[in-house]
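Fold this sequence, please.
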Amino acid sequence: MSELEAALPAGILPTALAENGEERGYRPGYEIVAERILEFIAAQRLVAGDRLPTEVDLAQMLGTSRAVVREAVKILSALGRVRAHKGRGLFVADDEGMLITSRWGGFFRPVDIDHVLMLFEFRRVQEMSASSLAATRATPAELRTIEVAVEQCRHGFVHGAVDVFNRADDDFHAAVSVASHNAFLVSAVRDARRLQRQSSAIGIHDTLGENAESAVEEHETIYRAIRDGRPEEAAQATAVHLDRTLEDYRREIQRRVFGQR
């Protein structure tokens, strides 16, 4: 048993990787390695600033190549979970992304489907409340910010610009929470979305889902309800949007794991 395997909780063992770093079956090796590094951080209760094994050591522990580990580190760096300091090695990140994980007790596992489902439940409660309040409190300037985010999301979808779409999607949900004029909701919505991005970045990233067009239209519906001062409709439209997003996530997981549609 390797050092990494010994450090992981019972029942969580690295999945066998082929020599080219691919998990036997369906997934890129760098995604698997990224997951295992997160599991290692959680199992060892590492905190911001703690040193991680080197890329070479991680490759040996997981039986894969350093190149695959390097790609995994790139993903985790983008998520704000690890930092690579030239000449010093790999460390648990000390930025806001890692602080959020600490604030939520460090229990969230981005690749645990049960955790993802709970996160969507949490988002549903928070964002329905935020949109309902926004429908009664939003200022003209806040409404314009939400509208611009809707327009940018549509632009990103039409032109296949993933970065534009994703950034506008974040801007939309953040703008709705700000328009609620409730600082606790603003914080909760922001943190939950950052946690969800960790799941998406590891397993489903750099693509526009087949139902991105639905998301654009759902954003438009939420915006119009808020603009017209209809809190119940705004909340219901938000519920429809998040329920559909969750269903998309479930289908994608089924496709990746079982080759099903």
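The longest helix spans residues 231-258. The radius of gyration is 20 Å.
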